[in-house]
Amino acid sequence: MMPSPHLRRTLTYLATIAGTQLAGFLLLPIVTRYLGPAPYGEYAVAVAIAGLAGMFATSWIRNVAFRFYYDARSAGTTRSFYVSLALLQAVVLAVVVALLVALTVALPRPPVGLATVLAASGMLFASDHLALTVAFLRAESQSVRFAASELTAAAVRLVGTWLGLMAGLESAAFLFLAAAFASAAGGSVALVALWPHLTGSPRLDAGAMRAVAWRAPGALPFSVGEWLNNLADRLILDAFAARAVVGVYAAGHVLGTQLVGGLVTAVFLMAWPDVLSAWNEGGVERARAAVRRYLQLFLWLTVGPVVALMAYADTIVQLLGGSYRDAASVIPLVALAAWARGLGNCFNRHFELHKRFWAMSAVTLVGAAVNVALNFLLVPTYLAVGAAAATLASQTLVMAIFFATRDRALVDLPWRDAAAVAALVLLAGLLAGPLAGGGLAGLAVFAGTYAVGTVGYGAWTMRRRR
Asked: Residue 104: pLDDT band by 50, 70, 90 thresholds?
């Protein structure tokens, strides 16, 4: 029996995210072995500043546009919708980038140099185009073409960055330029793949631009909160510690969230179009089953990896090189924070389904305020560990709020799956300890046991459904 279209898309998305995360996993230790903690800290600060620009300019546009794309598809006007949103995104970003460049030139001692700011700006334009285009590929259920676009960008970035570093281009500006070139390559593949699936004429749709822009007051605070939760800590840490400390923290943060955050993203990419389609076709009843599948996927694909990162942080941090060994204290905290953030998103889907972006923004801003306050409280004393602890506390709070305010008619908690996952994690831990002890061997036994158990449970579930 052939697998269902939903299963094929799920497997394709999972393989794509696995490939892109592997590329990112390989790229990080390559970069940290060429760049010491101090120059990597400069790159981390520049990433935070670029994220700030993207927050005001474009991230809120994509958050709203994905939801409105389904309306445009029903009306047969997706081609004009895409063209209009791509233009809106580029124009708003150009204005924000111009302000950022002017501020960098005006400041007597800017946080990063003008060359780095310009390179980061180029990366923003290219990566935002890629993100918008692949989002609409997902909406069209074009999982294979989505995979081609994302894997192209990941491969070009990995190879290009590595070759450039080998050639002596050891600077934050080069890292941004390599990322920009990779995103442009992936975006070109995505555009060629998406265009034939769009409907209607490629005219400028001012009404669609106004409809999305009208949601800015409700959607922008969510983007602000996301930036404050995920990137503001770099700038706060930079104010109280040496740039090298920022580099160690940022590298540990990336490593700690690379796997967990990637899996969380993979589950979302797989599940959210399914939830939206179910909602549009059958309302709460159909969407309830889709949300349940979302939660089941989330539990099985993320719990084991986050436990492994927490238990084997001392082993995993060796990937970064000896200069970054202090990042081991950061990895467990940020990995668990990334998991809590992903779980919280499983509970807030009703806000986006009803286009209540302001509600999501309000909760996110509460968590962001807690995060910033805790950073200022903890960072002066505990430095990187304090920043990581603040992230964990704020993300846990946001997750708890979303859980308390969830739509109980929509969210059906899969307690049986949760118990099975917990039992599998316990079994993997019991086998890893006596058989292999700590270190790389223990990690391998734990990961292998969990992977076999997850695949076995998935196969048993599919047979039972058939």
From this structure: very high
Per-residue pLDDT tens for 143-164?
A: 889 889 999 999 999 999 999 9
Question: Are 315 and 435 within 8 A, CB to CB?
Answer: no
Angstrom distance (rounded) from CA 345 to CA 256 = 19
SS3 content of the chain, % helix, strand, coil (to 5): 90, 0, 10
The answer to whether residues 16 and 147 touch, using CB atoms and an 8 Å cutoff, is yes
- Mean of pLDDT values over 393-416: 88
Cα 251 to Cα 257: distance, rounded to the nearest angstrom: 10
Decide: 221 and 365 in contact? Cβ < 8 Å: yes
CA atoms within 13 A on the CB side of 270: 28
Structure tokens at 39: 């120059």
Q: How far is Cα 46 from Cα 234, in angstroms, rounded to an integer?
A: 9
Evaluate if pTM is beyond 0.85.
no
Residue whose structure tokens are 């034939």: 196
Residue appearing with tokens 């796997």: 259
Q: Which residue stretches of 76-171 are H helix?
A: 78-106, 114-139, 143-166
